[in-house]
Amino acid sequence: MSSYAITGASKGIGREFVRQLAADSTNTVLAIVRNPKSADISDLASKHSNVHIIKGDVTDPKSILEAAAAAAAITDGKLDVLIHNSNAVDKDSMASTPSQLPFDAQAIQNIFSPSLNTAIYGGIWATNAFLPLIEKGAQKKIVHISSGMADVDLINKAGVSSGVAYSIAKAGLNVTVAKYAAELAPRGIKVLALSPGWVDTWDGEKPAEVVYANELLLKMFQLVEPELKGQIQPEESVKKCLQVIENLNAGSSGSFVSHNGDRSRWF
Ligand SMILES: NC(=O)c1ccc[n+]([C@@H]2O[C@H](COP(=O)([O-])OP(=O)(O)OC[C@H]3O[C@@H](n4cnc5c(N)ncnc54)[C@H](OP(=O)(O)O)[C@@H]3O)[C@@H](O)[C@H]2O)c1
């Protein structure tokens, strides 16, 4: 009998959160999407009466405040768990290393903006919009989906120099989580940064450059975990993430962990 709101729910890991949570008919699941007409999420909602699609974009303060108001109307003003899962990157610069970034103020902003808008500003706006509902909820949990790519030990051991803006934004998100945890502890609210693992969320056949990039990443990640074979599926990732969310308590609030529940097993 719990209520969950998931941002970025149209596809991939966000949609899988909705699917697994909806399987328990006593849950109320709020799928927050930028486009409520998106076929994947509306198909899922049509099969589960406990799934409610709400329009909301974390990068737009007005939009996410309206989403929180729509959520409150469904749940009587309460929410147990918020999962901020939205993410965007500038795809063209994902392969660039720090020394390759341009000496051009507008160009570098264009590279960082999608990641900062979703992870940092979006994380803050989504949290602040839903905070009044979370305060009235029973579980009082706020989870931000981060990435192992923001873990300094993993970067150093695997030697991953690319994905600069993405990794920096997620590292900033981890600090945001610690700040919220410090502020909200007296109100019984727990906050977590959670990496979902390395997950295959590509829709359809992967283009050659994506296959190549994944092969490069696999070789780097195998320096940390020699047995690693490749990406996991969203089903496995979300099952483990939900277990970590279940275990979140005042003692672990403010931390950054993987889907395996610790800060050493990122895959
Ligand atoms: N896949 C992995 O291997 C992996 C690894 C580590 C961490 N993660 C993190 O896990 C989360 C889910 O990853 P994913 O691979 O399933 O999906 P993703 O492609 O990173 O996107 C997640 C969702 O973000 C929303 N979104 C996309 N562009 C946006 C924009 N410009 N403004 C606002 N929202 C936008 C979309 O949802 P709507 O259209 O519904 O708004 C989309 O479904 C992300 O936070 C990602 O960084 C993934």
Mean model confidence by pLDDT:
97
Looking at CATH, the homologous superfamily is: NAD(P)-binding Rossmann-like Domain
Q: What distance separates the N and C termini?
A: 31 Å
Strand sequence of the main sheet, in spatial order?
3-2-1-4-5-6-7
Uncertain stretches: none
What is the 3D form?
Answer: globular
Question: Which sequence of SSEs, written as H and E, runs from N to C?
Answer: EHEHEHEHEHHEHHE
Q: Using only CA atoms, what is the Rg?
A: 18 Å
Task: Bin the helical content.
Answer: 40-55%
Quickly name the level 1 CATH class: Alpha Beta
Strand runs, count:
7
Major beta sheet summary? 7 strands, parallel
- What ligands does this structure carry? NADP nicotinamide-adenine-dinucleotide phosphate
Tally of individual domains:
1
CATH architecture: 3-Layer(aba) Sandwich
Descriptive report:
The chain is α/β, with parallel strands linked by helices. It has one domain: Rossmann fold (3-Layer(aba) Sandwich). It is built from eight helices and seven strands; from the N terminus they run βαβαβαβαβααβααβ. The longest helix is centred in the middle third of the chain and has 32 residues, at 105-136. One of its GO terms (molecular function) is oxidoreductase activity, acting on the CH-OH group of donors, NAD or NADP as acceptor. It comes from Aspergillus kawachii. It holds the Pfam family adh_short. InterPro entries: NAD(P)-bd_dom_sf (IPR036291), SDR_enzymes (IPR052184), SDR_fam (IPR002347).
